[in-house]
Write a structure and sequence with these properties.
6 strands, elongated, mainly alpha, two-stranded antiparallel ribbon, about 600 residues
């Protein structure tokens, strides 16, 4: 029996030693877990920063790639234009040069033959080549060749040919012949489908190129066209939309960098940012069109110089075959100008899409001359008069733009918080909290802090040591020892129970202490985390006050823009450059006639 007692005591001692070592290891692991938790939190933060930096890098790389591809396409398109239409440049340079040669008498029969042979061979389908042959033959008194040149040019492009000879005759002082060609051109036009060369008419009006008789003819014709087209609500709506698109392209950039806390916490930030961008666009709009209307325009002293400028624009206008390439070129140039932003480039290209159509209605020609004069080859002087002519559409578009962004200002700006925090192996998920900035800031802070406390307390309590679950097995083991050994070995039974109880109790004690440390660490972590949203809430509230102040300042510019638009009908000595505008040079000519 003593041998059995000895064996049992030895086994109990071994178990006791194992339990002690296990207790020490539990304490060591507890400290390591706390270190791992801290490192884990830091690693998550660094990974989030790395992710944000990677996404920014990817976006920048995409933009850079877009710019590089666009630049490559620009080179390819320009090469294709030069290859397919480059020979037109030679003819275009010859046109005004020949007229200037007429002024000093340098055109001879040899010149005529040279021009006829070279230009017709180089440009077999281009309307300007036979027109120049006719012009050179006319100068050399070769009636047969002149008529053949006129017929061929008219066959290739009746509209441009009519305008060309109207301008040439006007340049040579043959006003009656110029007006006949002009009348021939106007009678053949459909105001709903004008060719791109019609922009030259606007340029001629701005320059006063056709004199009083020609001006009267244009006044009557264009007034009829305008009255006809203004009866169409759809036609007017299209012009208002183009002006609205123009205003939208002048919006300010995002203000997220100015209001970072408000952008981070408010669900309404998207609307706030869009509204601020639209309001700040008022200043850009005012500066752009004030500069256009204040631009000084010095008319040419000689009618020859004025007509030469207009002829340059006529012969330099793109042929219809070039338009698809020019449209692609404009889009890729917009990609480069907007640093690879395809969305912004497409928006610009769509707004100017009408500028690259083969035919335009009269109202669209007016709008294009005002918004994108480069697309149809008109001068800044014509743009100025065109802006004044479009004042009704400008006014409607501006009023709609202002009304829309003002009505989009959120009436209830809110803050929303609902984050997750890692606490050891557990994750504390804060349920969403939403508060309105219409309430006092102190009330919002109190509500947010109470929300944190309400959900933080149960979470910390859930980290407590489950004492009841851990003590119940100990009690069961001790009772088992007493039950089986108390009758036969009472000393051993009580000794073993005491040892097992002490060791097991030590383990439970260490576990409870570790759980208490985890609770304290979780409480500190969450208390620290609670201060961050409170700081964000205060910062967002201050930024919202600044936002309202800056929005009010930006919106006040609207009155200046409205004043500028209201002044347009009287800008440039008339209500419209296309109906009844009196050109200073015409007045001088009428006075000289009297």
């Amino acid at each position: 029996m003593s041998e059995v007692d000895y064996t049992l005591r030895r086994q109990v001692q071994e178990v006791n030693n194992l339990v002690i070592r296990l207790s020490e290891q539990v304490g060591s692991v507890s400290g390591q877990v706390a270190t791992v938790e801290s490192n884990q939190h830091q690693t998550r933060t660094e990974l989030q920063q790395l992710r944000d930096e990677f996404l920014a890098f990817v976006k920048q790389a995409e933009s850079t790639a877009n710019v590089q591809r666009a630049e490559t396409r620009i080179g390819a398109i320009e090469d294709k234009i030069d290859h397919e239409f480059g020979h037109h440049k030679t003819v275009r340079r010859t046109a005004v040069g020949m007229l200037q040669a007429f002024d000093i008498g340098l055109v001879s029969e040899d010149n005529v033959r040279m021009v006829s042979d070279q230009l017709m061979i180089q440009t077999p389908r281009y309307w300007l080549a036979p027109a120049l042959v006719a012009l050179a033959s006319w100068s050399a008194d070769d009636r047969t060749l002149c008529e053949r040149g006129v017929d061929e040019a008219f066959r290739r492009s009746p509209d441009r040919t009519s305008l060309f000879f109207a301008l040439v005759l006007r340049r040579q002082g043959r006003k009656e012949g110029a007006v006949r060609w002009l009348r021939h051109y106007l009678l053949a036009q459909d105001p709903t489908a004008l060719g791109r060369e019609f922009a030259v008419i606007l340029e001629a009006i701005a320059q006063g190129a056709f004199g009083p008789v020609g001006r009267d003819l244009l006044d009557r014709t264009l007034a009829e066209w305008r009255a006809q087209l203004m009866d169409s609500a759809d036609a007017q709506a299209r012009q208002v939309k183009r002006w609205r698109d123009e205003i939208d392209t002048l919006r300010g950039p995002s203000a997220q960098g100015e209001f970072p806390r408000l952008a981070a916490v408010s669900p309404q930030w998207g609307m706030l940012d869009a509204v601020m961008s639209a309001a700040r666009g008022q200043r850009t709009l005012l500066d752009k069109y004030r500069a256009i209307m204040d631009r000084e325009f010095a008319p040419s002293e000689r009618i020859e110089d004025a007509v030469d400028d207009i002829l340059d624009r006529l012969v330099s206008e793109y042929d219809n075959e070039e338009l698809p390439l020019r449209r692609d070129l404009a889009f890729n140039q917009a990609v480069v100008n907007h640093d690879g932003d395809l969305t912004a480039a497409r928006r610009i290209a769509d707004a100017d899409a009408a500028s690259y159509e083969e035919t335009l209605d009269y109202l669209t020609v007016q709008t294009t001359a005002a918004l994108n004069p480069e697309a149809i080859g008109t001068s800044p002087a014509t743009q100025r008069l065109s802006v004044a002519a479009c004042h009704e559409w400008f006014e409607q578009a501006h009023a709609g733009h202002t009304r829309d962004y003002r009505s989009a200002v959120p009436q209830d700006v809110q803050a929303q918080f609902g984050t997750a925090h890692s606490v050891g192996a557990q994750t504390f998920q804060l349920p969403p909290w939403v508060g309105s900035f219409t309430q006092p800031l102190a009330a919002l802070e109190e509500s947010l802090a109470r929300h944190w406390d309400q959900h933080m307390g149960p979470f910390i309590a859930s980290l407590a040591y489950p004492m009841a679950k851990k003590v119940a097995p100990l009690i069961g083991v001790i009772l088992g020892i007493l039950l089986f050994f108390a009758g036969s070995f009472p000393g051993f039974a009580f000794g073993a129970s005491a040892i097992v109880g002490a060791v097991w109790g030590l383990i439970i004690h260490n576990g409870a202490q570790a759980a208490k440390r985890n609770q304290d660490a979780a409480r500190r972590l969450l208390e620290q985390a609670k201060t961050e949203p409170l700081h964000q809430l205060r910062g967002a509230s201050a930024e919202l006050t600044d936002w309202y102040q800056q929005f009010k300042a930006a919106d006040q510019v609207e009155a200046e823009v409205r004043e500028l638009i209201n002044s347009l009908p009287t800008a440039g000595e008339g209500a419209s450059p296309f109906e009844g505008r009196t050109v200073r040079k015409d007045k001088e000519e009428e006075g000289a006639t009297r």
